[in-house]
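**Sequence, structure tokens**
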Amino acid sequence: MRVFIGTVFVLLLGVGVSFAASELKNENLLVTMPDGYKVAYSDRKKGLVVSEMIPKAQSLEDWQDMVTVQVHFSVHPTMSALVKQFTKVGNPICEDYSGFLVRKGRENGYEFGLFLTSCSITPASKSEKVLTKAILGKDSTYFVIKSWRSGLDEADIVKWSGYMAGVKVCDSRIADSACP
């Protein structure tokens, strides 16, 4: 797996560029592209960078598995607000929503939450299960989202929870949160 870093993640991901950790400056999201995946979509809008990755054999129009990375610049929700959103409020475009907090804590000096949600009917008329890691950075808020429209079993949860454990934020300006 190649490592793609920081706010340049989406911009460079499409062309397959990566940087050595020693080049990291300021706050960065450390995340890998899953083996066998490709970038299906990326965009940068005011205050938001988004990248969607799907297995190489799938298309953006009819995907079954997706990893989405979102960087929300200068957005600073509280973890309690995110817990409420993911576990109680739900999603307005989803019928029969359920969600729970898998775990929360601190990694590399940053507060994070890992959530598992389920939606039985979406606008695409497909059931989705979603594992989301939210990290509250000092400069931005980061979301790494694994979505399934295909079947989901315990082995998938274990595999992708391990993937999410490798997703972290670092900051070259803070000794206790230094980049590797």
